[in-house]
Amino acid sequence: MANTSDIRNGLCIRYNHDIYKIVEFLHVKPGKGPAFVRTKLKSVTTGKVIENTFSAGHKIDDVRVETHQFQFLYNDGEFFHFMNTADYTQIRLLEAALDRPDLLKEGEVVTVIINTEDNMPLSVEMPASVILEVTHTEPGVKGNTATNATKPATVETGAEVNVPLFINEGDKIKIETEKGTYKERIKE
Elongation factor P C-terminal domain location, by residue (predicted)? Predict the structure, then answer.
């Protein structure tokens, strides 16, 4: 059993007969009244995100987890297939277990969180950023911009990202996976 001082991003807990991963948290100590922790929890079974407030010192039922490196193989429409990079065993996960499946490219190495009690995969953590090639974007027109103008671009995985006007088809760009935003253009 843990308490609210052990709360951190990525911690898996049992709450309301389900397992949730803490996505965001904030310790709040108001001037009047007791301290509390405001959290954003994501269900590892359904992918649904809920907000909850725990009072300070509240006991939480944490789930013991292990992390393993898996390589993304392919998506067959219903399941995403991964291979363990250490022992080459394969697993398949539903789309709900993934944070950003639209940014997942074949061959990408991700971290899979596995429940140690029953060896079931709980969720997939993407790398902080991914490098993808732009497959379609409209040409940027000079002169009709003020500052920080962007345009939509489709990348090789099918995801749509807003990029600066100087990005063209065929360019490789770095995308921050947490927010799905453009970071920088990659020079070959």
Answer: 130-185
Residue 4 — very low, low, confident or very high, per pLDDT cuts 50/70/90? Answer: confident
Q: What is the pLDDT of residues 102-139, one digit of tens each?
A: 888 888 899 888 888 888 887 788 888 888 888 988 88
User: Dihedral sign, CA of 41, 85, 104, 182?
Assistant: positive
Q: How far apart are the first and last CA of the chain?
A: 50
Per-residue pLDDT tens digits for 33-45 = 889 999 998 887 7
Phi first, then psi: give them for residue 4, nearest 5 degrees.
-65, -20
Total number of residues shown for the chain = 188
Residue 78 has pLDDT above 90, yes or no: no
Domain boundaries, the chain: 2-62, 65-125, 129-186
- According to DSSP, residue 2 is labeled E
Find out whether 12 and 65 touch, Cβ atoms under 8 Å.
yes
Residues 2-62, CATH architecture: Roll (2.30)
* DSSP 8-state symbol, 128: S
Please choose, from the candidates 79, 85, 133, the residue with its C-alpha nearest in 3D space to the C-alpha of residue 101. 79
Name which of 159, 151, 150, 153 is nearest 126 in CA terms. 159
Return the C-alpha torsion angle 82, 127, 47, 81, nearest 10: -10
**pTM (2 decimals)?**
0.71
Do 2-62 and 129-186 have matching folds? no
